[in-house]
Design brief:
By secondary structure, this protein is an all-alpha fold. It has 2 domains: about 80 residues, no CATH class; about 30 residues, no CATH class. The chain has 6 helices and no strands. Helix 1 runs antiparallel to helix 5. The chain is globular. The chain starts with a helix and ends in a 32-residue tail after the last helix.
């Protein structure tokens, strides 16, 4: 089990790009920012094939996380609010900008 969704996502991305030797050291990193930086160094340019599956990969990662914790799953299912992660990443999260929540990619899965 990965400690964070981001670590698993970046690991999957590296494996998808046949960067196994670069993926394994990610397992020892704790900082999400560091994990993203190392993945970006290993893959300066994404393969088009990754861009076709990246959202599905993250959705599956989120589903695993959702299934793993009944308490969190129940709290989220009972919530009537839209919930988005506040991170520096404006693709998957809000980028610390509440107004950006409706524009982030993951909002379509909420």
């Amino acid at each position: 089990m990965f400690e964070s969704s981001e670590k698993e996502f970046q690991f999957c991305k590296l494996i998808h790009h046949d960067k196994v030797s670069e993926a394994e050291p990610l397992l020892d990193l704790e900082s999400t920012i560091e994990i993203k930086q190392e993945a970006k160094k290993a893959i300066p340019e994404m393969h088009a094939s990754w861009l076709e599956v990246d959202e599905q990969v993250m959705l599956e990662i989120c589903r695993k996380k959702f299934k793993a914790c009944v308490h969190v799953r129940n709290a989220l299912m009972e919530s009537r609010s839209k919930i988005a992660e506040a991170t520096f990443d404006k693709w998957w999260g809000t980028g610390f900008d509440v107004d950006h929540m409706l524009e982030c990619q993951m909002v379509k899965y909420i």
